[in-house]
From TrEMBL:
PROSITE patterns: PROKAR_LIPOPROTEIN (PS51257). One of its GO terms (molecular function) is polysaccharide transmembrane transporter activity. It comes from the Bacteria. This is Sugar ABC transporter substrate-binding protein. The lineage of its organism: Bacteria, Pseudomonadati, Pseudomonadota, Gammaproteobacteria, Alteromonadales. Residues 40-112 form the Polysaccharide export protein N-terminal domain. Keywords: Signal. The keyword Cell membrane does not apply.
């Protein structure tokens, strides 16, 4: 590459960099789960779930459908049915209303396979967990259950400096959790209930 060509490329790159305006992206919005306590949990359908729709006496419109990334399914009669964020019972009632345009008094039953659910219903564990990941919530799940699923802490984790982030009444709240006391020292009083949508942040120790 000649010196002249290098100079032209350098100037062009400088123009691209300086010509682009720099701004801050808006903060991601965390969506609050419908579950506000351990006794109010109901499974919500999400993208990636497999829903089985049975329409009584109408096998031709029954079937198994994968929920698309946009939270909808396509059936033989209706192309776009929104399903994400609904319970199986709520979805069954919604489909009955839609099918009433084509069928007389449809009776619908919905069951779910695969169980992915919306992001707002998953528990996310980040930082110094052995296997950071999103975990599907199971009724009455606790911090201990979550830590078993992610394989515990790394050797560099500050487990007692961990935080649990939860959306309550539209506001983001943080709670101190003591994972090291729980899983290394066996202090069962450090075990707490977790809820759908919780985020667990495990920092690295400073020493």
């Amino acid at each position: 590459m000649t010196t002249t060509l290098k100079a032209i490329l350098f100037l062009a790159l400088g123009y691209i960099v300086t010509g682009c305006s720099s701004s801050t992206l808006p903060t991601a919005k965390l969506h609050q789960s419908n579950t506000v306590d351990v006794d109010s949990y109901k499974y919500l359908i999400g993208a990636g779930d497999v829903v089985n729709i049975f329409v009584w006496r109408n096998p031709e419109v029954s079937g198994t459908f994968v929920v698309r990334p946009d939270g909808m399914i396509t059936t033989s009669l209706v192309e776009d049915i929104p399903v994400s964020g609904k319970t199986p019972t709520e979805l069954a009632r919604s489909i009955e209303v839609i099918l009433a345009t084509y069928l007389r008094d449809p009776v619908v039953t919905v069951t779910v396979n695969n169980f992915v659910g919306p992001f707002s219903e998953q528990i996310r564990i980040i930082g110094e967990a052995a296997q950071p990941q999103s975990v599907n919530y199971i009724q009455h799940m606790t911090l201990l259950d979550v830590m078993i699923r992610v394989g515990g802490l790394t050797e560099f984790a500050n487990g007692n400096g961990a935080l649990l982030v939860r959306i309550e009444n539209g506001l983001q709240k943080q709670y101190n959790i003591f994972i090291e006391d729980l899983i290394k020292n066996g202090e069962i009083l450090a075990n707490v209930d977790v809820l759908p949508g919780d985020i667990i942040v495990i920092p690295e120790t400073w020493f």
